Amino acid sequence: MKREAILSRRQMLTRAAMGGAALGLAGCDRLSNATGSRSVLDAAENLTRGAQRALLAPRDALAPEYGPADLSPGFKPNGSVDPDDPDYVQARDEHFVNWKLGIGGLVDKPTQLSLADLRQLPARAQITRHDCVEGWSCIGKWKGAPLGPILTAAGLKPSARYIAFYCADTLEQTLDGTGQYYETIDLVDAFHPQTILAYDMNDEPLPVAHGAPLRLRVERQLGYKMAKYVMRIEAIESFDKMGRGRGGFWEDRGYEWYAGI
Ligand SMILES: Nc1nc2c(c(=O)[nH]1)N[C@H]1C(S)=C(S)[C@@H](COP(=O)(O)O)O[C@H]1N2
Ligand SMILES: [Mo]
């Protein structure tokens, strides 16, 4: 196993032990007591176990899927729940009828897809467990368009190595603009059969609190990888120049880039 991976997991544990909040790692909201808040150390311990499992399991293994009876009665919204960024507010007030998902970067055919376009593509529905890094989990049903075929249709250039998701919300006000939420995943996850751009949650249009009109589900990883309010997707060669260069909003603030569970 790579030394890097061991070190970064240890770093994470140390940070967790020192108290995430003090270091600005209070990533996901304070915990709802309903789900029972475990200590940060417990969460870190689980994370470590998750990371070990993730290293053993083949990357294309499926995340467990559940039945309708397993759905959580309430799914906790977390992070941004009502973005006030002007473009988003306008799109939301128009019920996303003029909204389009941009697809670009290292692709042969950059394109834009409306919600109606996305809904016409072959769909996949799945009931999965969402694990937040802070130690709570909820089971929800997601329906959307698998990402892989969308990328294939756009034609990935050979230099494309990652897929970047640009979100509408500013989660932290920063002077340099690095407070905008974004995420990146590699092509293995992008083409994983359970990786979908979800427009429905629990058989209803995705609510604003959970990322309307479109969010990523990347089921083999932790919650923070599941970008909400996705406005644009780009195929990229490297994420060095995005945000603070670690591949995502929370990654820039200390969390692992590969958050396998
Ligand atoms: N754009 C955006 N995506 C986001 C977040 C966010 O604040 N903004 N929070 C992340 C975190 S930490 C979690 S746990 C999940 C929460 O998804 P939910 O609100 O549907 O529970 O979204 C992830 N994706
Ligand atoms: Mo999270």
Describe the structure using short key phrases:
binds molybdenum atom; disordered N terminus; binds the ligand Nc1nc2c(c(=O)[nH]1)N[C@H]1C(S)=C(S)[C@@H](COP(=O)(O)O)O[C@H]1N2; alpha+beta; Sulfite Oxidase, Chain A, domain 2; five-stranded mixed β-sheet; five-stranded antiparallel β-sheet; 261 residues; globular
Stated plainly, the CATH topology is called Sulfite Oxidase, Chain A, domain 2
At the first level of CATH, what is the class? Alpha Beta
CA-atom Rg in angstroms? 18 Å
| Biggest sheet details | 5 strands, mixed
- Described by the principal axes of the CA atoms, the overall outline is globular
Uncertain segments of ≥5 residues (pLDDT<50)?
A: 1-7, 9-38
In CATH terms, the superfamily is: Oxidoreductase, molybdopterin-binding domain
Helix content: 10-25%
Query: Which cofactor or ligand species appear?
Result: the ligand Nc1nc2c(c(=O)[nH]1)N[C@H]1C(S)=C(S)[C@@H](COP(=O)(O)O)O[C@H]1N2, molybdenum atom
Number of helices: 6
Give the number of DSSP strands: 10
Percent strand equals: 15-25%
Mean pLDDT equals 87
Order of helices and strands: HHHEEHEEHEEHEEEE
C-alpha end-to-end distance: 17 Å
Can you offer a commentary on this structure?
The protein has 261 residues and is of the alpha+beta class. It has 6 helices and 10 strands, in the order αααββαββαββαββββ. It has a 5-stranded mixed beta sheet with strand order 2-1-10-5-6. Strand 7 and strand 8 form a beta hairpin. The protein is globular and about 40 Å long. The two termini are 17 Å apart. The N terminus is likely disordered. Bound molecules: the ligand Nc1nc2c(c(=O)[nH]1)N[C@H]1C(S)=C(S)[C@@H](COP(=O)(O)O)O[C@H]1N2 and molybdenum atom. The site of the ligand Nc1nc2c(c(=O)[nH]1)N[C@H]1C(S)=C(S)[C@@H](COP(=O)(O)O)O[C@H]1N2 has 19 residues, from strand 5.
